[in-house]
Each structure stands twice: as structure tokens, then as C-alpha cells.
Amino acid sequence: MVAAWTSPTKTFRSALQNLRIRMLIKSAAVVGMFTLASRCLGFIRDILIAFYLGAGAAGDAFFIAFKLPNLFRRLFAEGAFNLAFVPLFSAKLTSEGKRGAFQFAEEALSILLVVLVIFVGLSQLAMPWLVMLIAPGFADDPERFDLTVYLSRLTFPYLLFISLVSLLSGLLNSFQRFASAAFAPVLLNLCLIGSLLAMGGSGAGSAIALAWGVALAGVIQLLWIALNCWRLRLLPSLRYPKLTASVRQLLKLMLPAVAGAGVVQLNLVVDMVIASLLPGGSVSHLYYADRVAQLPLGVIGVAMGTALLPTISRQVAEGDEGSALATQNQAVELSLTFAIPAALALLVISEPIISVLFERGAFTVADSFVTAAVLSAYALGLPAFILIKVLAPGYFARKDTKTPVQIAIIALLVNVFLNLILMQFLGVVGIALASTISSWVNVILLVWGLKRRRLFRPSPSMLWRIGKLLAAGVVMAAYLWIVQRYGLFGSSLGLWAQVLTVLVLVITGAGVYFMVSVASGGLSLQYLRTISRGGKLDAP
Known about the structure:
Blueprint: H1 8-53, H2 57-76, H3 80-125, H4 127-134, H5 142-155, H6 158-174, H7 179-199, H8 203-231, H9 245-277, H10 282-317, H11 321-348, H12 350-358, H13 365-391, H14 393-396, H15 402-426, H16 428-452, H17 460-485, H18 495-520, H19 525-532
Helix pairs in contact: 1-7, 1-10, 2-5, 2-6, 2-8, 2-9, 2-10, 3-6, 3-9, 3-10, 4-5, 5-8, 6-7, 6-8, 7-8, 9-15, 9-16, 10-11, 10-13, 10-16, 11-13, 11-17, 12-13, 12-18, 13-16, 15-16, 17-18
């Protein structure tokens, strides 16, 4: 019998796709590893913040001051700028080579630097009005308001440094160099921990120490990423800022992306405005719950999204839509494999987690109870938060920044509407629940838009496996609920006993999920070996 003939071109493309999937998984693993390290240090940082600041006025003031530069960072850097820059840079690498791509990067860097210097300078002058805009409830407490303005002036220059870090990180990511950029957040947490231990004291004193730590971290992060770019000969030079054709194209793509990133940040502003109007400590409760939810979101969603955008962008630039579709599908399934158990675990054992992490010093039992309720509300939306990170590159890689904006505006309106209703009945928990529901609306619309253009086609076998993973997650959640309900965890235990108990809950819960997933066919050892080698996930 004569073996079936296979086209060399088809064989080459299949091998290339497998290689790229391996690179995607490896890249996501690198980003995830450093993100996990950063989140762990972040927990240590937040434990110290909770000990020194608790959920009082000084804590609220610092969290607003810390949020301010990060809001605009996502607008200038990780939001609009990077989402427009990476696909254009990848396209220029493919069409014009490294020299043409670097000329574009240098032009973009020069324009970004000028805009940032002007914006940061004007914001320093307008800081009281900025604080009034996002925390109007603080106006009733002049001492807290003045402290927030002072801290914000210390933290706001961080925007300048971290935006430049983000541009250089996007450049490194386009060359599949993810480690250096992924390590940068570790430096932020080390600076904050060091400043708090070295200078922390009273509530206000600790807040001021943290604010100085934020400013210092920006400088150190920029030096770190610039040094790594220089070492790899990937450091762009500064040019005289000009509106070249490439920069105009970048700005044209940025405009809808700015609107989209602005809508996302407006969601956060709405949450903070409403939280500032609620009883004191509400801003802090939101912050601490969000920090816990950010661990799986960062390790899974941000890591996968960071690795996914340059991968799909290059596949689209090469005209290989089939590989881009396969890459997106595999990223969705892999993300949900870990997002489902993480979300259900945070939902069921939120109280022990918050108690172990934060309940000491100025952080009371009452603070733990409220923060755990907020975390449970966020947990319901965790898969949605992660899927947004994974689905959005499907648009951005094809230079479509308008559709995600339209979807984000709809999600914003849903969030505002639900905030105004739910806050009256659930207080600060209602704010988190509104974010969860609006995020699921966002996901549904993103999926609908991609499917309508035939840019997302999950196979029946993939959907069947995800259903089995969800069932395994429910079994795990039931196990955790029973174990917690019948007294394995209690406030009468000492600190280290509580820590050990939470670790036992997490590890055994993960074991239950893994065993049920394998037994049901939702997950298999062959499947894990396949994805680690870059094979197709639609294998049985």
C-alpha cells in the first residue's frame, strides 16, 4: 500500500505552528513564573501594609495615591500605547526588518517621552482636582484629603518611568524576550517592602514611606529594563520628536485604543468614587480583595495575554490566519483549565485566605469579614477577567482597536448601572459584584464579535472538555466547603496553624480537581504532554 502523500508546505506549516505553540506556552510560563514571584512578594507587601495601615484613613489615602499613576499607566502604556505599538512593531519586523522596526520604535519613544513629561508636570499642578475627581468622599475629611494629595504628588512621577518600561517591554516581547520585562514588577514590590521596613512608623508615616518607595521603584525598573535592552542590543535611541507617517499610524490606532483603555480605567474610577462615598475603609477593603484576586489573574490571564499578543500579531502579519485561530483556541482552553479551580477556590475559602493574609495589627476581624465577602464577589468574575485578557488580542493583533472600545463602553454602562443599584443593598460588596457581572457581559460580546468574523471557532471536543473541567471544579468546591464547614479552620488556631490549614485546603483541593478532571476526561496526562510539546489540543 502506498502511503498518502503530504504536501511539504503543509508539513512545514504544521511544524512551524507546533513550534510557535511551544514558544507561546514557554513564554507564558516564564511570564507566569515571574508574575507568581511578584504576586507572592506583593502578598508580603500587602501583609505589611495591612499591619501598619489597616483599613483606615491612611490606608485609603495611600491606595488612592497608588491607583492614580497606575490608572494612567494603563492608558499610556499597557493599554492604548502598547496594544497599538506591538502589532505595528511586529508588522514592521516582518516587512522592513529589524532596522525599519527600530526606527519606528525610536520615533514612538521620543513622542511618548514628550507627552509624558508634559502630562506629569500638569498633573502635579492639578493634583487636588484629580483627587477630588476620583475620591469625592474624601472632601468631608480634610486631613485624609490633604494626605491623599501629598501622597499622589509623590507617586505620580512613577507614571513617566513605568510607561517607558512598558514600551521597552513591548519591544523585548516582540523578540520573544519575556523574562526581563516579567521581572520588573518584582522590583516594585521589593522597593515597597524595603521602604516600609526602613521608614514605616505611624499610619501617615508608613503611607509616606510607601509613596517614596513607589517613586524609587519607577527609576529602578526603568534602569533594569534599559540595561537588559542594551545588553541584547535592543535599546532604541532618542530622536527629535516628529510626527512621521509611522507615528501618525500609531496615533491613529491609539485613538480608539485610548478610548477603550479609558473606558476600562473609568470603570475603576467609578468603583473608587462610589467606594469613597461608602463608610471609611471601603477603598481599603476593595484593594485587599483585589490584590488576592490579582494572583491568579496575573499568573494566568496577564501571562497568557502578554505572550499571546506578539505571537498572534506575527501570525496575522504573515497571513497565517489558521495558526492564529488555533493559537487563540489553545490559549482559551489552557487559561480556563486553571481559571476555573482558582475562581471556585477563592469563592469557597475566601474567609480563611483573607484571615491568614491580613488579620493582624491594624486589620481587624470585621475588616476580614468584609474583605472576604468582596473577594467572593470578585471570584465569580475571575474567569471573565482572565478571558478578556486572552480574547482581546484576537482584535488587537488584527489592528482592530474599535470593536473592543464599543464593547468596553457597553460593559462600563452595565457596571455603572449595577453599582448604583447594588451599593444600596450590598455596600462595598455590590461594587465588586457589579464589576463581575459587567466583565461577563464584556466576554460574551468579545466572543460574539470574534465568532461573527469567524475569528474564534472552538471545536465541540474543546467545549466538552471545558464542561468536564467545570464539573471537576464544582466537585472541588464541594470538598472545600465541607472541610471548612466542619471545623478544619478556626480563629482559635494559632497563626502558623492557620497558614498550614489554608495550604492543606489549597493543595488537597487542587488534588481533587486534578483527579476528577483526569477521571472524567476533561484533562489527561497525554493532553498535558501534548500542550507542553506544542501539539494540537483537540487530541482526545
